[in-house]
Design brief:
alpha/beta, TIM Barrel, globular, binds flavin mononucleotide
C-alpha cells in the first residue's frame, strides 16, 4: 500500500519553509535548534510540554525504557542535540554511526527529498567527528543529565561502524576500538553492518564476518563489569535464508537483539539508501516473520514508521521498540504523540 506522511499541527506552517532549504542544511539547522533548546531549561520544558508522548515504560535487557519510541541512528551522529532529544521525550536515542577516526563522508549533495513518496535518499557515508570527540561529548551529556535529576531518562544507544579507509579484513579492529571506548558510557551498542553508503560494508553481513567482528567484542564484554547489551542492525535487502541464518547465529552467540532494518539500497533517481514511507509495509512484514521464528529475541523496528497508530501496529507485529527518522522530517515533532 502507498503511504504518505502529512505534517501535524503547526509544523504544516514550518515544513514549506524548511523544505526550501537543501535537506542536509535543514537537518543541521534542526539539530542546532534542538541542541540550543536542550541547553535552556525553559525551552526543555516547552519541548516536553508540547511533544513528549505518554510514558508507558517497559524493561528490556536490563534497562527501563520510559516509552517504546526511539530516535534512529544517523539523526544525531555526533551527539550534539542529546539534551533536546531527551526533552522531546524519546524513550531511547541512538547516537552515531561513530567510526574510530573522524571522516568527512561522501561529497555533496548527498541527501535528497522525494516528497511524492514521503521519502529521503541519503549517501552520507558516515560523516562524523570520530570516536574520541564524540565519546567525550557523550560523557559530558551524561554528567549534565545526572546532575539535572535522578528520575527516568532516555536510554542511550551508540551505533558503531568502520572507517571508509579500513579494509573489510581489518573491520573487526574498528568495531573493537569503538566498543572498548564506548562500552561503559552506552546503555546499548549497535553494530552497524548495513549502511549502503560505505563501500563493501554490507558484505560484513555474513555469519563468518559477523563472527570475526563479534568474537573479540563478546570476549571484552564477558571480562568487563558492565554487561552492555549488543544489537546488530541489518539491511532490508538481505535474502531470506541469509538473514534468518545470521539471526540464528546471533542468538547462539548471546547477542541481545537486532534492529530491522536500515535504509534500502536504491539507484534511482539517486544512488544511496532510501528511507521513509515506502519502507513501511516491508518493515512490518519483516518484523512479523522474524518474531514468529525468534520468539525471545529483542527486535527494534526501523524503516518507514510514522503513520498515526504505528506504535501499536508494530508492537502487535512483534517489535519491542520502534525507531523513527524520516517521518519526523515530513510530519514534525508532534509525531511522537500520534504514533
Ligand atoms: C540522513 C540519514 C542518515 C542516516 N544515518 C545512519 C547512520 O549513520 N547509521 C545507521 O545505522 N542508520 C542511519 N540511517 C538509517 C536510519 O537510522 C533508519 O534505520 C532508516 O532511515 C529507516 O528509518 P526511517 O524510514 O524511519 O527513516 C540514516 C537515515 C537517514 C535518513
Amino acid at each position: 500500500m502507498k503511504h504518505t506522511y502529512a505534517p501535524i499541527g503547526l509544523y504544516s506552517l514550518c515544513k514549506p519553509l524548511l523544505f526550501r532549504i537543501p535537506p542536509e542544511k535543514a537537518h543541521k539547522l534542526s539539530l542546532r535548534a534542538l541542541g540550543l533548546a536542550g541547553s535552556l531549561p525553559p525551552a526543555r520544558y516547552v519541548l516536553k510540554r508540547f511533544f513528549s508522548p505518554d510514558t508507558q515504560s517497559l524493561s528490556l535487557f536490563g534497562h527501563t525504557f520510559i516509552n517504546r519510541i526511539g530516535m534512529a541512528a544517523g539523526y544525531d551522529k555526533n551527539a550534539q542535540a542529546l539534551d533536546g532529544l531527551e526533552g522531546m521525550g524519546f524513550g531511547h536515542i541512538e547516537v552515531g554511526t561513530i567510526t574510530p577516526k573522524p571522516q568527512k563522508g561522501n561529497p555533496n549533495p548527498r541527501v535528497h527529498r522525494l516528497p511524492q513518496e514521503s521519502a529521503l535518499v541519503n549517501r552520507l557515508g558516515f560523516p562524523n567527528d570520530g570516536l574520541d570527540i564524540i565519546a567525550k561529548r557523550i560523557e559530558s551529556y551524561c554528567n549534565r543529565r545526572n546532575k539535572r535529576y535522578s528520575g527516568p531518562r532516555p536510554i542511550l544507544g551508540i551505533n558503531i561502524g568502520k572507517n571508509k579507509t579500513t579494509a573489510n579484513a581489518q573491520a573487526y579492529l574498528d568495531y573493537k576500538e569503538c566498543f572498548t571506548r564506548l562500552k561503559d558510557v552506552a546503555d546499548y551498542i549497535t553494530i552497524n553492518v548495513s549502511s549502503p553508503n560505505t563501500p563493501n560494508l554490507r558484505a560484513l553481513q555474513s555469519e563468518e564476518e559477523l563472527e570475526k567482528i563479534l568474537t573479540p567484542i563478546l570476549d571484552i564484554r564477558q571480562k568487563s563489569a558492565s554487561h552492555v547489551p549488543i544489537l546488530v542492525k541489518l539491511s532490508p535487502n538481505l535474502e531470506h535464508n541469509t538473514r534468518t541464518g545470521m539471526i540464528q547465529k546471533l542468538v547462539e552467540w548471546s547477542v541481545d537483539g537486532v534492529i530491522l532494518s536500515n535504509t534500502t539500497k536504491t539507484s534511482h533517481p539517486w544512488e544511496g539508501g532510501k528511507s521513509g514511507a515506502p519502507l513501511h509495509d516491508a518493515t512490518l512484514s519483516l518484523i512479523q516473520e522474524t518474531r514468529s521464528r525468534f520468539p525471545n529475541l529483542v527486535i527494534i523496528a526501523s524503516g518507514g514508521i510514522g503513520l498515526d497508530g504505528d506504535l501499536q501496529t508494530f508492537i502487535e507485529a512483534g517489535a519491542d521498540l520502534i525507531q523513527i527518522w524520516t517521518a519526523l522530517v515530513y510530519r514534525g515533532p508532534y509525531l511522537l504523540r500520534r504514533l
